[in-house]
Amino acid sequence: MKVSDILRVKGNTLYTITPDEPLADAVTTMAEKDIGSLVVMEHGDLVGMLTFREVIVAIVRNGGQVGGSLVRKAMDDAPVTCTAETDLDEIRRIMLERHARYMPVMDKRMLMGVISFYDVAKAVVDSQNFENKMLKAYIRDWPAEDEGTTT
Asked: Which of 1, 129, 132, 144 could be a cystine partner for 88, CB 3.0 to 4.6 Å?
């Protein structure tokens, strides 16, 4: 299974923000849309990723307040990315190694989507459920042995 399979099921809704917007606006968007990340874009290029992790660190750094800081100050400016052709096993390995909960999917410089750890876990469970159904159907349809045959 590849990232493109996950994106096809997930859909292509993307939420972005610029690095010079107030962090408070980003937090509001994340809360209103019930999302855990925003892709930070500037002049059509991916320049960072803002997740709830970066927001929490910024709030702690600012004494428990969002304050007037900008997204640029809180964002991860070197997010790990993948392509639509990246294999699901590779994505799982990268996400676990880098503790990445969200990963932008790129086609050269074009943002194609974002996959989350949830999306990956759901794809694995769905795949296993399908495989289980196929195995159960195979077992149920197992040809009966001819009782007159000896080996």
From this structure: 1
Q: How much is the pTM?
A: 0.78
Q: Give the chain's domains with CATH numbers.
A: 3-140 (3.10.580.10)
Q: Over the stretch 7-23, which tens digit does the pLDDT of each residue have?
A: 888 877 889 999 999 99
59 Cβ contact list (under 8 Å, min separation 6) = 65, 66
Contacts of 118 (CB under 8 A, 6+ apart): none
Q: Is residue 151 scored above 60 in pLDDT?
A: no
Q: What is the pLDDT of residue 146?
A: 63
